[in-house]
Every structure is written in C-alpha cells, then in structure tokens.
Design brief:
By secondary structure, the protein is of the alpha+beta class. It has a single domain (about 10-110), classed as Aspartate Aminotransferase, domain 1 (Alpha-Beta Complex), CATH 3.90.1150. Helices cover about 30% and strands about 30% of the residues. It contains three helices and six strands, in the order H-E-E-E-E-H-E-E-H. Strand 5 and strand 6 form a beta hairpin. The termini are far apart.
C-alpha cells in the first residue's frame, strides 16, 4: 500500500489551530495577522499561504534543512526569529505541532501540563 500525500493546511484551519490554544488571541501587527498569548506574539501570517511561527533557532534550522521547499528561516537582526511555513506544502499536523511549540515558549510553565517524560 502506497503512502498518502501530506495534507496541507488551509489558512482558516491554521487560524483555528492557533486560536484553539489557551489564551490565544488574534490581533493586527503592522498590517498583518498575529497570534498572541498574554500579549506576546507566537505566530504571524503575512498572507494566507504563509505562516511565520516563533520556534527556537535550532528548530528552525532543523526544519529548513529537512524540507527547504516548505520551511524558510525568518531573520530578525542577527538572529533567526521564526520559521516561515508554506501552508500549501506543509503537513497539517506538523503546522499544528509547531504552533503549540511556539505557544509554549510564550506562556508561563504553570500553563503547560506535564507530559510523559517531563
């Protein structure tokens, strides 16, 4: 049996995934959409085909090395601030995971339930 192609994520589904995270809100940011928790941005969307997600630099570099046609680094000054995701090519489940990962970086530890191995 052959493998199935990855399921891309429509922007409205990415928006819903971001806003499903506890405390997440959508606000404009320099004329683009931003997703925030406690006033801190964890993702932005310059258009409906791209989502910029604020994961750590090591994670960005790993994603870009693995799938450069899907992921691009987003520099901010001298550092890599986020990963730009081509929503037309990315796997929906991975986009959701990355949004949660970025959200976790912006919330107090008490907001994150301990998982296995923590």
């Amino acid at each position: 049996m052959g493998s199935l192609a990855p399921v891309a994520l429509a922007f409205d589904d990415a928006r819903a995934a971001a806003l499903s995270l506890p405390g997440a809100e959508e606000h404009p940011h320099h004329e683009i959409v931003s997703f925030r928790v406690r006033g801190r941005i964890f993702a932005t969307a310059p258009d409906e085909a791209c989502l910029r997600v604020m994961v750590d630099e090591a994670r960005v570099l790993e994603l870009v090395a693995r799938e450069p046609d899907v992921y691009r680094p987003v520099p901010w000054g001298r550092r890599v601030a986020a990963v730009a995701i081509d929503l037309t090519r990315a796997e929906a489940a991975e986009v959701r995971d990355l949004l949660e990962e970025a959200w976790r970086r912006r919330v107090p530890p008490s907001w994150v339930a301990p998982g296995p191995g923590r």
